[in-house]
């Protein structure tokens, strides 16, 4: 029985920890909730908070905050959520906690600490008729000097409309207006819609509409679709204020942001507009679309309009930023921020394939730098924890990499699951096909493989014995020849083709030992083709490296180097070992025409006989041609005394004929 009891207890604890939702809200308010909490001995202190067990009690918290001034907005009191709640938005409308339409009395503002205890509040519906007054809507309406933490608002529908030019309209999934408050470990999903026929003061965000003065937002995210009439962002519509500093750290937003405004405004994937404070270790993925009807347009992947703020180690990963204006105002767009008005950017990055659509004109790719930030490739941002570590993101405390196939981006460590979002457009790959034409070697890796955009790939060129790399081409462009080839940044498809050529096979000398090679058995001859004599190098072995001899000289020509073939097409490197017996041929350059080693031809020509001199050598008159054996005739030189004697004999013969 004891064992069965332990099992039952374990099951009970599991159900409690899983947060089994209470019944869907029937729209009622637990009018006695607060009195019962006091009667139960709960004081609202940090170690003895007021408890929320059902939606009717949460509605009672809103009712006490908005109508019962005696609670003073639960100032310095703590409320703890004990279960998941279903607000049944299809049937009932939610009244926000701190739902005030004026800035006073302060008792209508939530001032306490709400701890969601990692539970979820789902299916909230806040829909208001058009009003000319200030209005703040979300799970919380107006929050000041408060703390909200550890709660998720899922599948929220927030829709608010204003007909006033000067009214403040603030809407968000978690809160409408937040002032001097701390928001930690919270998230929101759903649809946020703020409409105004003329107002400049509308603020819409996936998590909150307006984060005013010195508020702190940490470890939060939103996947809401946001539609606004002025300032709108995937996480927050507007942050900070002149003379104040709002902090946003370790946050991200994935929802699309769309704004149509009558006046100047900001639209951004994370924040619509900022003025003072800092944004650190954040990113956004949602597409941004903005249109101004009368004035300037500000649209950016991370922030629309940024002034007097520091943005550090953050990344814009949006697919598109779209901006247009039907008025005369300027259109300010950028991959990272739409317009920089005194902001400091430290290590800003933007996905390098993000496109800008400016009044129908597509700019893609967008030049990096300034408001467009530094290029980030798929290999950098997708499933690569090291990139974010290099940006000083704490991947052990605050962040971890998403495991869903369509979302390999950072998520917060406290999340039980990643956002249900498809970001696979960031996962770009390029096909690289590496092949060898002919024989003589191989390439590794070979064949067609897909590599992440931005990857670095090195190919090893493996020549067979007796072969060397001949050519390497990449997309038809010849590359330098070596034993490897590297694509440092795969930014497009590649077709790599390699060919090999056989090296000269050294002659096999007479067998003198078991190695098949006789030491000191080879020589290198130098054919200067009429140039000065170069003595052969003898007593060599296969593979020996010889020193280049002094350059030969030839009247009227310039020496052009040594070649391994008579046609002078294969330059010889004296850094290479000899294959065996070989002849090196001098290449001569006369005027503009290179002169290769002369070869005899089958056309007979007469070599002119120069006038002999007492000291100079003369050329023996020879008819060039082909011998019976087909051997090539060569030109030789003889000493001057010999030619003098020969000339005398020829002259004597002529005289004898005349006498006869």
TrEMBL record:
Pfam families: Flg_new, Glug
Cell compartment(s), UniProt: Cell envelope
Source lineage: Archaea, Methanobacteriati, Methanobacteriota, Stenosarchaea group, Methanomicrobia
Identification of the protein by name: InlB B-repeat-containing protein
Key words of the record: Membrane, Transmembrane, Transmembrane helix
Start and end residues of each stretch annotated as Disordered: 603-622
Principal location class: other
InterPro entries according to UniProt: GLUG, InlB-like_B-rpt, Listeria/Bacterioides_rpt_sf
Entry's transmembrane regions: 638-656
Entry keyword annotation includes Heme: no
Residue intervals of the GLUG domain: 169-193, 264-289
């Amino acid at each position: 029985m004891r064992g069965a009891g332990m099992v039952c207890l374990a099951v009970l604890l599991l159900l409690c920890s899983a947060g089994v939702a209470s019944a869907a809200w029937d729209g009622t308010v637990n009018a006695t909730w607060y009195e019962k909490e006091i009667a139960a001995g709960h004081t609202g202190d940090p170690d003895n908070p007021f408890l929320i067990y059902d939606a009717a009690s949460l509605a009672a918290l809103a009712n006490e905050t908005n109508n019962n001034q005696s609670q003073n907005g639960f100032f310095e009191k703590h409320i703890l959520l004990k279960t998941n709640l279903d607000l049944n938005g299809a049937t009932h409308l939610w009244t926000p906690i701190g739902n005030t339409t004026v800035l006073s009395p302060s008792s209508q503002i939530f001032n306490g600490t709400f701890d969601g205890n990692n539970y979820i509040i789902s299916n909230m519906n806040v829909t208001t008729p058009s009003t000319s007054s200030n209005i703040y809507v979300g799970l919380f309406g107006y929050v000041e000097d408060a703390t909200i933490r550890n709660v998720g608002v899922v599948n929220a529908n927030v829709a608010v409309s204003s007909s006033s030019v000067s009214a403040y309209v603030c809407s968000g999934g978690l809160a409408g207006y937040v002032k001097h408050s701390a928001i930690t470990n919270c998230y929101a999903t759903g649809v946020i819609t703020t409409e105004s026929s003329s107002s400049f003061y509308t603020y819409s965000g996936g998590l909150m509409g307006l984060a005013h003065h010195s508020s702190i937002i940490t470890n939060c995210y939103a996947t809401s679709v946001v539609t606004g009439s002025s300032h709108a962002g995937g996480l927050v519509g507007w942050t900070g204020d002149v003379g104040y500093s709002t902090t946003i750290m370790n946050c991200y937003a994935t929802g699309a942001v769309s704004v149509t405004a009558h006046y100047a405004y900001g639209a951004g994937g994370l924040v619509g507009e900022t003025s003072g404070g800092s944004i650190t270790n954040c990113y956004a993925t949602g597409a941004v679309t903005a249109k101004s009807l009368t004035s300037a347009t500000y649209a950016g992947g991370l922030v629309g309009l940024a002034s007097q703020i520091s943005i550090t180690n953050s990344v814009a990963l949006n697919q598109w930023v779209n901006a247009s204006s039907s008025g005369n105002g300027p259109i300010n767009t950028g991959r990272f921020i739409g317009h920089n008005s005194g902001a400091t950017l430290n290590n800003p990055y933007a996905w390098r394939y993000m496109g800008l659509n400016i009044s129908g004109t597509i700019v893609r790719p967008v030049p990096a730098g300034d408001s467009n930030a530094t290029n980030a490739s798929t290999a950098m941002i997708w499933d690569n924890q090291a990139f974010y570590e290099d940006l000083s993101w704490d991947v052990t405390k605050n962040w971890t990499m998403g495991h869903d196939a369509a979302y390999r981006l950072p998520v917060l460590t406290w999340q039980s699951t990643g956002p249900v979002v498809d970001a696979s457009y960031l996962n770009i790959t390029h096909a690289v096909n590496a092949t060898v034409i002919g024989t003589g070697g191989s390439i590794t890796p070979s064949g067609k493989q897909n590599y992440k955009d931005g990857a670095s790939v090195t190919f090893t060129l493996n020549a067979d014995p007796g072969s060397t790399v001949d050519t390497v081409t990449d997309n038809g462009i010849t590359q330098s020849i070596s034993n490897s080839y590297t694509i440092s940044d795969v930014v497009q498809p590649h077709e790599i083709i390699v060919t090999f050529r056989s090296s000269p096979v050294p002659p096999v000398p007479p067998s003198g030992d078991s190695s098949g090679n006789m030491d000191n058995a080879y020589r290198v001859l130098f054919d200067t083709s009429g140039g000065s004599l170069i003595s052969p190098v003898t007593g060599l072995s296969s593979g020996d490296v010889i020193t280049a001899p002094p350059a030969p000289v030839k009247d009227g020509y310039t020496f052009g180097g040594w070649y391994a073939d008579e046609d002078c097409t294969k330059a010889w490197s004296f850094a290479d070992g000899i294959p065996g017996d070989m002849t090196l041929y001098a290449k001569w350059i006369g005027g503009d025409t290179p002169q290769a080693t002369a070869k005899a031809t089958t056309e007979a020509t007469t070599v002119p006989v120069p006038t002999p001199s007492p000291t100079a050598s003369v050329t023996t008159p020879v008819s060039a041609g082909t011998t019976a054996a087909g051997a090539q005739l060569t030109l030789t030189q003889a000493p001057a005394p010999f030619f003098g004697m020969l000339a005398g004999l020829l002259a004597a013969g002529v005289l004898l004929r005349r006498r006869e």
